[in-house]
Design brief:
Elements lengths: L1 E4 L1 E5 L4 E5 L27 E4 L16 H8 L3 H12 L15 E6 L2 E6 H6 L4 H22 L10 H11 L7 H8 L6 E4 L2 E4 L8 H9 L27 H8 L12 E4 L17 E4 L1 H9 L1 H8 L2 H14 L5
Helix pairs in contact: 9-10
């Protein structure tokens, strides 16, 4: 879907809304048109013809003021982030207090940990009213949501969800910066250790659980952490009894990945057969697994050679699974 992105100027005396199209006039649609406020993801785009992937919904996180401490904390990580935020806001078009009195010259005003784009008239006439602060907070949230979309390779206009925010923070090692109120919402924990019931105040399980920040940090840790030993004791025995590496946590991770054949939800972590592994009466190491749905798992066990001719070598799927596990932090 395509649309024309333009600056709207209300003319209150005439009851008109004027669109500044300029050189984009030839691209403007004819007949009935649909007018809508541009989503925050388009703030950095120049006026003109833009692509809208599906319906560009606005992320509910954009107006969630519980996240302001998070955006501030992320901005303090590096001066580079603040420079990028300022450049993001500057790339927008027009005064953010748009009215028929706006001047074409635009400047940036710093408000807290963000900036707001104002024409010189509004910059001189308006102090830090609530509307100015709200615009600055919205700019800050819009910038970080765009960073998250880029980091997760999501399309322009995608409405970033809370789970996607948490995943992005986990990948970058910043999950501990999530505000406690948001952390509690993610974990499904109440705001206090007591709740009001028809029988009066009742204790909840919250008092017996670790602090929300500590709990979510535990959940964000890698599924498996390897420890290398240059001189393991068994290496000094001439014929040691082979040890099989077992890890239920890792096989659970593999099981929830999509099937390597049909990309549907997997049912089983398949243990490598052949290739020197999976001998009679013994499975291969839990590390040597990849996800399969029940249908393709049964098919493989019925005819390993035929399955590999049709769907590729087990080793290729194993390496792909290990590669994904390392990239997303399941293995460390």
């Amino acid at each position: 879907m395509q649309a024309v992105l333009a600056t709207a100027v209300p003319v209150n005396e005439l009851g008109l809304l004027v669109l500044k199209l300029g050189s984009q006039l030839a691209q403007a649609p004819r007949g009935s048109v649909l007018l809508s406020s541009a989503p925050a993801a388009f703030d950095s785009l120049q006026p003109g013809l833009v692509n809208i992937p599906g319906v560009a919904a606005e992320s509910p996180l954009l107006a969630d003021r519980r996240l302001v401490p998070l955006w501030n904390a992320l901005g303090e990580l590096s001066a580079r982030h603040l420079d990028s935020l300022q450049a993001f806001i500057r790339r927008g078009h027009g005064c953010q207090m748009a009215s028929d009195e706006c001047h074409k010259e635009v400047t940036l005003r710093k408000v807290g940990g963000s900036w707001v784009r104002l024409c010189w008239i509004h910059d001189h006439e308006l102090a830090d009213e609530a509307v100015i602060q709200e615009a600055a907070l919205r700019n800050q949230a819009a910038f970080w949501l765009q960073v998250i979309r880029g980091g997760l390779h999501l399309p322009t206009g995608h409405a970033v969800s809370l789970p996607e925010l948490c995943w992005w923070l986990t990948l970058n090692g910043w999950i501990d910066r999530l505000p406690e109120s948001i952390t509690r919402a993610v974990l499904g924990r109440p705001e206090s250790s007591s709740r009001q019931t028809p029988l009066g105040l009742m204790d909840t399980d919250d008092q017996y659980l670790p602090e929300p920040t500590e709990q979510i940090q535990r959940l964000a840790k890698p599924v498996v952490r390897f420890i290398a030993d240059a001189e393991p004791p068994l290496s000094f025995i001439p014929r040691p009894k082979p040890m099989r590496w077992k890890c239920e946590a890792y096989t659970r991770f593999v099981k929830v990945q999509p099937c390597v054949v049909c990309q549907q939800q997997a049912d089983d972590p398949h243990h490598l057969i052949g290739h020197g592994q999976g001998k009679m009466g013994s499975k291969s190491h839990d590390l040597f697994t990849f996800p399969l749905c029940r249908q393709h798992h049964d098919e493989l066990h019925r005819d390993v050679s035929g399955w590999e001719r049709k769907h590729g070598s087990q080793l290729e799927h194993l390496v792909a699974t290990l590669d994904r596990a390392l990239k997303v932090g399941a293995l460390e």
